[in-house]
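Fig. S4 source data, part A: sequence.
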Amino acid sequence: MVGGGMFLLVGLVLLIHSCYATIRYRQYTMLLEEQMDGLPLDIVLECLFGLVVSCWGTVLYAGQFQPIKISSHLAKKTFDTLNHRPSLITFAHRGPQFAKTATN
């Protein structure tokens, strides 16, 4: 976890620095009244390296992945616990109000 957080921090610092270098390069080309055709190679490489390092840090920081197969998770449960969904049970619904208007 500590290594992933450190990779993430270093990657974000590299990305912020590449943004700052891009702004400085744009100001430099505007000062010299030149056309900005593209970024220098060092800024592009720094941005790509920062992106790769921060993605790698995010993967390491996330921790242990859960298995993608649901059968390993559901193998321990019985059918009764699978069918029980308390979030779908609604006791305060509009059924009694409709029953009153239907009888009138």
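Fig. S4 source data, part B ends here. The CA atoms of residues 91 and 98 lie 15 Å apart.
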